[in-house]
Amino acid sequence: MSKYSSQQVVIYAEQRPIIDCVRSALRTMDVRDVALFTKAEGAIKHLQTKTVDVLIVDDSLTGQNPLEFVAKLRIDKNIVSRLVPVILISDNGLPRTVMRAIKAGVDEVLVKPVAEKAVQLRIEKTIDNPRECISVPSGYVGPDRRRSIKDFMSGDERREEDKASVLPRNVGNAPE
Q1: Structural domain that includes position 29
Q2: What is the pLDDT, as a whole number, of residue 157?
Q3: Which residues form the Response regulatory domain (predicted)?
Q4: Are the C-beta atoms of 105 and 121 separated by less than 8 Å?
């Protein structure tokens, strides 16, 4: 039994090669609890009531923009797993695409073509080194991208409108 065997992973994808690659990586990690959804409604319904450790989203979805899906997920306080770490598998690695993914609240981006080992390493990194989630007055809810908080960035002189609230992710221990 591996340290990942108790993890709950959701895959939201339609393309068989991506689904097979991610499932193979999860099998290698001995992840046993995997839910696959090809439609947004099913994925949201699952995330509303279940505690999930990682959400993997393919950006080649029909009928649903994956970045809108993640942004809506992040702001909906009725979703138990709204702060789940999200890995986006993207067709496009251009900086503007990655920036849009970051602004939507995605934790990690993998660019196609992806290999099973790359998927496995990114899932392990996401589970082993999760980013804190923050909420800022501008409306962003998602992973904290700041690498470090310097002393000069805090204190009485810090502008109130720039302060971020740290949100607990409750991954793996939230009530179902």
Answers
A1: 8-167
A2: 53
A3: 8-127
A4: no
